[in-house]
Structure formats: C-alpha cells, structure tokens
Design goal:
heterodimer, A: about 110 residues, mainly beta, 7-stranded mixed beta sheet, B: about 110 residues, 6-stranded mixed beta sheet, 11 strands, globular
Chain lengths: ~110, ~110
C-alpha cells in the first residue's frame, strides 16, 4: 500500500538532547513537508523540500534541521535549541498540483 | 488578527443532524480552499477542494465559499458517529506546485452522538 510512514509514534526528549523523527514515503512524490501541530493553532510549516538534496525553511524552522538525501526520506531533527518541542509532528508529501498526503504523526514530549 | 480563524468547538450533535463548520479569513487573495478531516492521533486527510466562490457537493458533504464575506463553510448532512473528528480548513492564494503557501485553520472538533 502506498503511503507515508512516520516513526516512532511517541518520542520523549531529555533536556539538551537532539532527537530525529523519521518520515518515509512510497508515493513517488517529489515534495515533502514537516508541520508542527499545537492545540488551538493551525498546522505550522517547519521545513519543506521540493527535490532531493534541496530544502527550504518554513515559518518556524528555528531549532529544527532536515536532510533530503533520498526522494523517499525526509527526516526531521529536533535540536536542543528548540526550547518548546512538545507537539504533534506531521510529515506530508505531494506532487505538483496534487493533493497533500499526511503521515499518522509523531507525538514528541519532553521528560 | 489571525489569517484564518475557526471556532475550536467542541461541537456536539446528535446522529442525523446537519452540521455546519465555518472558517473566516482576512487575506482577500485566497482563492483555493480545502477541508481536511483529522481523526484522533492520525494525520489529516483531504475531504473537499474548491476554487473561488460557489458550492461543491460530494455525497453528504457540501463546501461553500463566500469570497465577498471571506467566509467558507463545510456542511455535513445526516451526520454519523464516524464523522466525529477535527475538521481543518486550509487556503492559499495560488495553485502552486507545492503547499508551502497554504495556511491552515486551527480546526473544529466535532462529536456526533449516537
């Protein structure tokens, strides 16, 4: 089945620790995105990538980093510089003029 | 003022009721409008997509856009318990090749009681 797989479903971060959220898609989509979802707020774009080896900052990129070494994969690292990382993180992908497909999300909490 | 606003709810209705979910927006350049449904602990999925003003119907769902009032609505007829979810509106000013310009509303939580 084609889709977007995010792992893990739940993740806990200790103070000063970097953590990496995985996102893999087998839809052959060129574009991939990372969003952050907080209660009472709309989805906010962290980073996006339209082609391999290229990515752009979204509205709230500070404290996050990404890589796009393969078309299928777009991992997100939440660094220790992100002081308020507790949120639901959603990965998505799309083709030009197509719909946006989301993964099931990763819930990150701080210990 | 936020660019896109939605009443967060929760909205609770009996099974079979007609549900009206709404978004208001401030950017008059928006012309592409979407509704997503998000079940608890899941990613959103696209329900409806409309361009400019007017109505679009798909089964029990009707999307309505009133650009003069900067107001969009999603109507659900004969609501079912399986419709219980959070509904997000989303919009953009252009049908670009990527979604980086799309603005999402915060979502309205809906519960349909059997």
């Amino acid at each position: 089945d084609g889709g977007i797989t995010q792992s893990p479903k739940y993740l806990f971060r200790k103070e000063g620790q970097n953590v990496t959220l995985s996102c893999e898609q087998n839809l052959n989509h060129d574009a991939m995105y990372w969003y952050r979802q907080d209660p009472g707020q709309g989805l906010r774009l962290i980073y996006y990538s339209q082609i391999v080896n290229d990515f752009q900052k979204g509205d709230i990129a500070e404290g996050y980093s990404v890589s796009r070494e393969k078309k299928e994969s777009f991992p997100l690292t939440v660094t220790s510089a992100q002081k308020n990382p507790t949120a639901f993180y959603l990965c998505a992908s799309s083709i030009a003029y197509g719909s946006l497909y989301f993964g099931a999300g990763t819930r990150l909490s701080v210990l | 003022q936020k660019e896109v606003e939605q009443d967060p709810g929760p909205l609770s209705v009996p099974e079979g009721a007609i549900v009206s979910l709404n978004c208001t927006y401030s950017n008059s350049a928006f012309q592409y409008f979407m509704w997503y449904r998000q079940y608890s602990r899941k990613g959103p999925e696209l329900l409806m997509y409309t361009y400019s003003s007017g109505n679009k119907e798909d089964g029990r769902f009707t999307a309505q856009v009133d650009k003069s009032s900067k107001y969009i609505s999603l109507f659900i007829r004969d609501s079912q318990p399986s419709d219980s979810a959070t509904y997000l509106c989303a919009m953009s000013d252009s049908r670009e090749t990527s979604y980086d310009k799309v603005i999402f509303g915060p979502g309205t939580s809906l519960s349909v009681i059997p």
